[in-house]
Amino acid sequence: MTGQQTSTDHPPGDLRSLMAAFPTGVSIVTTSGSNGTNWGMTCTSLCSVSLDPPMLLVCLRCGSPTLNAVRESGRFAVNLLHEQARPTAELFASGDPDRFERVAWYSDESAAGPHLTDSSHTIADCSVAATHEVGDHTMVLGKVDIVTQLRSQQPLLYGLRRYASWPPPAEKAAPVKNFSRARGQAGCVPDPEEGL
To answer: What is the pLDDT along the chain (196 residues), one digit of tens a residue?
Structure first.
């Protein structure tokens, strides 16, 4: 049958190489377990789902303590990292058990998870609306309850297996010339063989 392929027709591609070519922002998902223990992990799998109601989606590794605590508490915070926060992103990707002792954070009753106050530019506090396990990750759908902007700073990016900053603004483009021909046709496109 033409136009259809089964998964056995070709070997699976390298998904990591595919996604490395798709740069994205960097966030840290945080939450607190029932015993008050804080959990968090670096996450680039984040997307908006709906504006009304405000919903977003994060994908967390199955079996991770952070995912288990998110399921238990029913809440999580998404900390969007600014361009100077690479050390924090690496710390929360390392599995270091003392990560919360090495960064500044704040939490109160309204916070769905610890707010990484020095490393984030914006934080979303979310309630878990649904979860769905797919392969080795679990999709967590969260209703955004509160958005807090801490500072206006460029976001931290990740792609091509490295961290980067948002590029500086481009120079202002020169105004477009209004080309006209001798016969008075204003706005004509110049002949490519003529000089500008």
So the answer is: 445 544 445 556 676 666 565 568 899 999 998 888 999 999 988 998 999 999 999 999 998 999 999 999 999 999 999 999 999 999 999 988 899 999 999 999 899 999 999 999 999 999 999 999 998 889 999 999 999 999 888 999 988 778 888 887 777 655 655 544 444 444 444 443 434 3
SS3 173: coil
Count CB-CB contacts under 10 A for residue 54: 15
**Owner of token pair 């303590």:** 65
Q: Which residues pair with 48 in a beta bridge?
A: 56
Q: Which of 145, 166, 130 is nearest to 58 (CA)?
A: 130
DSSP code of residue 67 = H
Task: Give the chain's count of helices (H) and strands (E).
Answer: 3, 10
Check the CA dihedral 123-128-132-137 and report its sign.
positive
The pairing of beta strand 54-61 with beta strand 75-81: unpaired
DSSP codes of every residue in 113-142: S-B-TTTEEEEEEEEEEEEEEETTEEEEEE
Instruction: Say if residues 102 and 130 touch (Cβ distance below 8 Å).
Output: no
